[in-house]
Write a structure and sequence with these properties.
Helix 1 packs parallel to helix 5. The protein is elongated. The protein contains six helices and no strands. It is an all-alpha fold and 141 residues long. The chain starts with a helix and ends with a helix. The longest helix is centred in the first third of the chain and has 32 residues. The protein has a single domain, classed as Membrane associated eicosanoid/glutathione metabolism-like domain (Four Helix Bundle (Hemerythrin (Met), subunit A), Up-down Bundle), CATH 1.20.120.550.
């Protein structure tokens, strides 16, 4: 496979992660309603009414549409310009790994310092991807 294909595979991994977290969030919310822990009228205007497990999943689902969008944009720039290389793919996979660790921590124990460490790692890999794109683009002959 080419570096561009590997870059897309890393993005597909994040897409899969996002869909998994979304499905788990939906499952947790349905279970909360069916069990009577939650009344839809209460949570319709206030997400704080969901049980903790459903809130953690929903919060993590929301997180998948924040910094990751910067990674998608950088990857699109690499692909559009034909500058995708092994380093870009590696940074994208490192980002994915950090996001998976962040998700596991966020939706389980939720130790804030551990979660922050994983978030900062993913943030650094996203930044690194943009820095690497800038270097590649500005030095391309």
């Amino acid at each position: 496979m080419t570096p561009a294909q590997w870059l897309v595979v890393a993005l597909l991994g994040h897409v899969l992660l996002t869909f998994i977290v979304g499905a788990l969030t939906l499952r947790a919310r349905i279970a909360a309603v069916k069990s009577g822990k939650v009344r839809l009228q209460v949570v319709a205007i206030n997400n704080a009414g969901w049980p903790e497990d459903a809130r953690k999943l929903a919060n993590n689902f929301d997180n998948q549409f924040q910094v990751p969008m910067l990674v998608y944009a950088a990857a699109a720039m690499f692909l559009a310009t034909g500058l995708a290389d092994v380093s870009a793919a590696g940074l994208a996979f490192a980002f994915l790994a950090a996001r998976i660790l962040h998700t596991l921590e966020h939706t389980r124990k939720n130790n804030v310092l551990t979660r922050l460490t994983h978030f900062l790692a993913s943030y650094a890999f996203a930044l690194g991807l943009w820095v690497w794109f800038a270097v590649r683009y500005l030095t391309a002959g």
